[in-house]
Design goal:
This protein is an alpha/beta fold. The protein is about 45% helix and about 15% strand.
Length: about 140
């Protein structure tokens, strides 16, 4: 695909509800970010807690517009599942990256940056910078 779209964002959580809620929050806080494709990939195919390589791959394919896909995860096995998919090399769209960022704050920063036209490097950097957000 040519780079004519926004960076796609996949949010991987052990919970379908958490992934969907963080996706809605990030899009809402970015003014809706209608042009930014965001897909949750939470839980297992049966609706339980866990991670699913199939759900992650489907979510990544659904948000791929040719500008790359940023994948943010919540906890341990979500990271391992994405790393395994990246290592396989043919399950995820080209230019898919696992982004080291806090899940909620990173998702918001990633969606806002993608909505502003940021490329994959900028989206990754903005999400990673969320580790430095101070709350007190």
């Amino acid at each position: 695909m040519s780079e004519d779209g926004a960076v796609g964002i996949v949010l991987v959580s052990h919970s379908a509800e958490v992934a969907a809620s963080v996706a809605a929050l990030a899009k809402g806080l970015s003014g809706g970010a209608a042009a930014v494709p965001v897909a949750p990939a939470g839980g297992t195919e049966g609706g339980g807690l866990g991670t699913s390589a199939e759900l992650i791959a489907a979510a990544a394919a659904s948000v791929d517009r040719g500008a790359g896909v940023a994948v943010l995860t919540d906890l341990g096995s979500a990271v391992l599942t994405v790393k395994a998919l990246l290592a396989e090399g043919d399950e995820l769209p080209e230019d898919t990256r696992l982004v080291d960022a806090p899940f909620v704050e990173g998702a918001v920063a990633a969606v806002v940056t993608a909505a502003a036209g940021g490329d994959l490097d900028a989206v990754e950097a903005a999400a990673a910078e969320a580790y430095a957000y101070r709350k007190v």
